[in-house]
UniProtKB/TrEMBL annotation, chains A, B:
Enzyme class name: isomerase
Gene for this chain: murI
Pathway field: Cell wall biogenesis; peptidoglycan biosynthesis
Molecular function terms from GO: glutamate racemase activity
Protein name: Glutamate racemase
EC code(s) of this entry: 5.1.1.3
Binding site for substrate: 13-14, 45-46, 77-78, 188-189
Species of the source: Eubacterium uniforme
Catalytic residue positions: 76 (proton donor/acceptor), 187 (proton donor/acceptor)
Keywords, alphabetical: Cell shape, Cell wall biogenesis/degradation, Isomerase, Peptidoglycan synthesis
Annotated family: Belongs to the aspartate/glutamate racemases family.
InterPro entries hit by this protein: Asp/Glu/hydantoin_racemase, Asp/Glu_race, Asp/Glu_racemase_AS_1, Asp/Glu_racemase_AS_2, Glu_race
Role description: Provides the (R)-glutamate required for cell wall biosynthesis.
Residue stretches spanning the membrane: none
Length: 277, 277
């Protein structure tokens, strides 16, 4: 058996949001180990420059490689949009982001060729969803909408709250007049607002959760490269899944325990700036 | 004339919030030059650990000293609360924060010895306002309330908005039952919500803006140390005031121009992590 098959998958995000992607990987690939890194010292990425996002992503890739991962999932839309292309050429293990799988599924889903994207400022401004969608079908119209308060609202646990409803109504008002039939939840926090967004957009709009599509894509990729673990792990969750952060303060544990189907025992702080690139 | 008198004052914050303090210094000390540093790459500080806040503050102090400042104002409540005491012992120029001046004025203001503090999670948890207030008068009751959504709401420009009103009502509901007569706006963004907070708290509660008090304290300090510039500067605002950030992305310029009484010409990006401490 290929030893590398037993290696974990690395997953990283600017903070807690990527846990929605890790959760999908746990569901769809229950026998894969995961090393998760949340860049809680430098969260949020959404308002930062491409130059810094690229530097941060390189540092995290270096850290994950030091943990012996066999593949990396960039579970952050901003980093997928701004850093993935460069990093892909710099490393010798497979790496995928969340943007392409989300874009591909949206293209398959739309009937009227009108797709909406909601995301952070940086992701919307990067227009990368639009770019990927147009690579697949240049006839599709893509309408982007930044929802900057969604991340703080989710991180405050205000998933079902009239304030969140009000902000969602404002952010989505423009999209509702655009006759889209498909809407990409283009930030890893947004699947946690799926019910609110779905209610406002109505039944005729299909919501695309890139976390789900990314886990599917990871499975294909591991199979293609003969890297998928084909044994059975005799480990509990806290052995199978390791969690690292760049700042131990804040609410990582609370938030993680509210998202994941088990309680995390250990969260290890890493001096990420020491991973010089 | 003492050459050092002509040196600028360094002012730093995790981002744009400290501009409310810089603005007060510009008003009260119109002939002092200012070098402002906003740590936009690592904002917000409010959810980060003491260890990281201390490291970041040391790096910024090193940067400001490289610009030849004669004194430093820590225009960030979190850094004032978590890093100022250590840093004060490490440097050879005067340094003040925003917490002590705010606490001192609140103690002078209260008649019924009941003071409220609203701030970020980290500032409230540090209990430093409580500590400073109790050093001055241990009979005073201090009631703290974290308002985590205020910073993103202010940064989205939602200063006069029903969503901000609703969040303010929720955050302040507990304080309203505490019979406080004085409320410290313990985060540099909060003076921009002064009218909302004032309306909810009512006329009988005096709002304390530490930015104002800090500029007063800076003036005293410069006089005491014979560092106050006593000439007249023949410079326009964009010569007198220099602005540096750790990340040029985001909304620093828009926000700064909405707060300051002039438009900033140049904002320079600094690789702050290269200031190794």
């Amino acid at each position: 058996m290929n030893d590398l098959k037993q290696a974990p998958v690395g997953v990283f995000d600017s903070g807690v949001g990527g846990l929605t992607v890790a959760r999908e990987i746990m569901r769809q690939l229950p026998d894969e180990r995961i090393v998760y890194f949340g860049d809680t010292a430098r969260v949020p990425y959404g308002s930062k420059s491409k130059e810094n996002i690229l530097k941060y992503s390189r540092q995290i890739v270096k850290f994950l490689k030091s943990k012996g991962v066999k593949a990396i999932v960039v579970a952050c839309n901003t980093a997928s949009a701004l850093a993935l292309d460069e990093i892909k050429d710099e490393i010798d293990i497979p790496i995928i982001g969340v943007v392409k799988p989300g874009a591909r599924t949206a293209v398959r889903s739309t009937k009227n060729k009108r797709i909406g994207v909601i995301a952070t400022d940086a992701t919307i401004k990067s227009e990368l969803y639009t770019e990927f969608i147009h690579e697949l079908d240049s006839d599709i119209t893509v309408v982007g909408q930044a929802c900057p308060l969604f991340v703080p609202l989710v991180e405050e646990g205000m998933l079902h709250d009239e304030v969140t409803d009000e902000m969602a109504k404002r952010y989505l008002a423009g999209l509702k007049t655009e006759n889209i039939d498909t809407l990409i939840l283009g930030c890893t926090h947004y699947p946690l607002l799926r019910s609110t967004v779905g209610r406002i957009m109505g039944d005729k709009v299909t919501l695309i959760n890139p976390a789900y599509e990314t886990a599917m894509r990871l499975k294909e990729l591991l199979e293609d490269k003969d890297l998928k673990f084909d044994g059975k792990l005799n480990m509990d969750e806290n052995e199978k899944y390791e969690f690292f952060v760049s700042d131990a303060g804040g609410k990582f544990r609370t938030f993680a325990n509210s998202i994941l189907p088990f309680d995390i025992d250990t969260i290890t702080q890493v001096e990420i700036e020491e991973y010089i690139v």
